[in-house]
Structure formats: C-alpha cells, structure tokens
Amino acid sequence: MEKTLILLKPDTVQRNIAGAIISRIEARNYKIIGMKMILLDMEILREHYAHLVEKPFFPEIVDYMTAGPVIAMIIEWENVVAGIRQLCGATNPAEALMGTVRADFANNIRFNLIHASDSVEGAIEEITRFFRVDEICAYERKIME
Fold first, then answer.
1. pLDDT (tens digit, 9 = 90+) per residue, 112-141?
2. Distance from C-alpha of 72 to C-alpha of 50, rounded to nearest angstrom
3. Model pTM?
4. Is residue 6 a contact partner of residue 116, using CB atoms and an 8 Å limit?
5. Would you name the residues annotated as active-site residues?
6. In which element (H, E) is residue 36 found?
7. Nearest to 36 by CA among 133, 118, 131
8. Kind plus residue range of the DSSP H or E element containing 32
9. At CA 65, angle to CA 84 and CA 126, rounded to 5?
10. Which residues are 115's β-sheet partners?
11. What angle, rounded to 10 degrees, do the helices at 18-27 and 80-88 form?
12. What is the pLDDT of residues 2-36, one digit of tens each?
C-alpha cells in the first residue's frame, strides 16, 4: 500500500471546510492513518519548500503557511499518491477540473487550500518530516472494505 501526505492549509482551517475535504477523502475509501493539527515554523517551511526558498515569493508562502494551523494527514491506499493529487486538482484553481477540491473550494492560486505529495518517494520524505513513527496509526479494516 502507498502512503501520501496531505496538508490542509490555514485557509482550509479558517474557512471551516476541513471536514468537507476530509469527507471527500473518506468517500474515496482512502484510509487515514495519521492526522494532527499543527502550527508550522520557519525551520519546517524552509525544509518543506526548499526548492522555493530562493524565489521572490517565498516570504508570501511563509506568511500564508504560518497564518494559522494546518491539518497534516497521512493517507494510505493503492495508488493513493496519484489518486489524492487527482482529488486535489490543479494547483491553480482556475485550471482545476470541476469536482476537485481546488475547483470547488479554492479562491485563487495563492490560497489553494491543500498540499499533496507529488510522488511515492516525496511522500516518504514528507511523512517523515511531519510525523513521528508513534503518531502513525496503521490498522487493518475489519468491519468492511
């Protein structure tokens, strides 16, 4: 089974739409094996957005991602990286397909609600960045599949 990391960004939390997005994840039958609300700091943002640190818009990313708490989640399922990215939609909400999180809820590219790992390898790195091993609740579904 693949795992991926999702961050529900501060605008998701502040707009009270985290539950609606989590419901979409659960409706796809994906399994949430880790979830917590956290405040991000410069150290973790520099690491997470290392590829953007030298860009002129990096301070805007920092302001955005420190504007309030985020909800970090680990999702597990077959082909979950691609599936969650499809569920999120294009980074620019104006280009996202209707029915995706960003098309349905995001206002603009700057406030795009959600981060999802872009590869299996990236997911492993990001999960390690945001979760300790004892915060992951791997379990088997015994009630229904």
1. 999 999 999 999 999 999 999 999 998 988
2. 18
3. 0.93
4. yes
5. 115
6. strand 31-38
7. 131
8. strand 31-38
9. 45
10. 7
11. 140
12. 999 999 999 999 999 999 999 999 999 999 999 99
Report which of 35, 55, 14, 9 is spatially closest to residue 135, judged by C-alpha positions: 35
Task: Please answer whether residues 126 and 41 qualify as being in contact, where contact means their C-beta atoms are separated by less than 8 angstroms.
Answer: no
Q: Give buried/exposed letters for 91-122 (b at 16+ CB in 10 A, else e).
A: eebeebeeebbbbbbbeeeebbbbbbbeeeee
H or E segment and range at residue 102: helix 101-105
The answer to whether 52 and 61 have CB atoms below 8 angstroms apart is yes
Residue 38 in tokens: 């956290």
The distance of Cα 140 from the centroid of its chain, to the nearest Å, equals 23
Q: Where residue 111 falls among pLDDT bands split at 50, 70, 90?
A: very high
